[in-house]
Amino acid sequence: MIKNLQDTVTLHNGVKMPGFGLGVFKVEEGPELINAVKVAIKHGYRSIDTAAIYGNEEGVGQGIREGLQEAGITRGEVFVTSKVWNADLGYESTIAAYETSLKKLGLEYLDLYLIHWPVEGKYKEAWRALETLYKEGRVKAIGVSNFQIHHLENLMKDAEIKPVINQVECHPRLTQKELQAFCEKHGIQLEAWSPLMQGELLDNEVLTAIAAKYNKSVAQVILRWDVQKGIITIPKSTKEHRIVENAAIFDFELTKEDMKLIDELNQNHRVGPDPDNFDF
Length: 280
Known about the structure:
Elements: E1 8-10, E2 16-18, E3 22-23, H1 31-42, E4 47-49, H2 57-71, E5 79-84, H3 91-105, E6 110-115, H4 123-135, E7 139-145, H5 149-158, E8 165-169, H6 177-185, E9 189-193, H7 205-214, H8 218-228, E10 232-233, H9 240-247, H10 256-263
Parallel strand pairs: 3-4, 4-5, 5-6, 6-7, 7-8, 8-9, 9-10
Antiparallel strand pairs: 1-2
Helix pairs in contact: 1-2, 2-3, 3-4, 7-8
């Protein structure tokens, strides 16, 4: 379990990844995005997560470069993730998509590159491309996103390299208990997108009561729950006070009873697409 904002989780290939980061899903290109990335870096965030389909890699890259300069830190101190989109899931097209992402971000390499969705019949070729990029030293680590157990089993049948990460929708209404257990068994780190369920949980009575007990916000309680479960989490915000608040979760600890109450909120309910029934 991470102890502070810069603390890392060691992935199965030895790469150290911050256990807490900033997500930028649905944040459009422009000053707000650039500023959010800079603000996050200023306040100690060391992981930034984007994707080709978000259409904001250029702004993310600019925010990273300006943020590094203003904070007086080097590129190697910030962990950058992007993802290959469904339309590019082929061997050559995935390599080309990686090149495009690097160019837009203005970076020489990515720390982590993920297959965004498990498109049947396509993700194995894309994975071969990721393995090539990794073996050539062009990316520090490779993983997947939105893969369910059967997708992972199918991928690992033929893969030379196991994914280091599976980034999935995960929050108290979708706890992903079985998937997390499978990933732990195989040394794959679970990472949560939409950890706050896009705001749908912020007035939940159980969470509100727990938050009041610690004089914390519901968002802080949920993010603390992630951390204590050993899940990497990447909440999204563009507001400075919220970026700071989201990370202020290392001065309290939820009890086993609190954790159980939150786990019991599970309904296997998604706010995003079902990986098995996604209209690609």
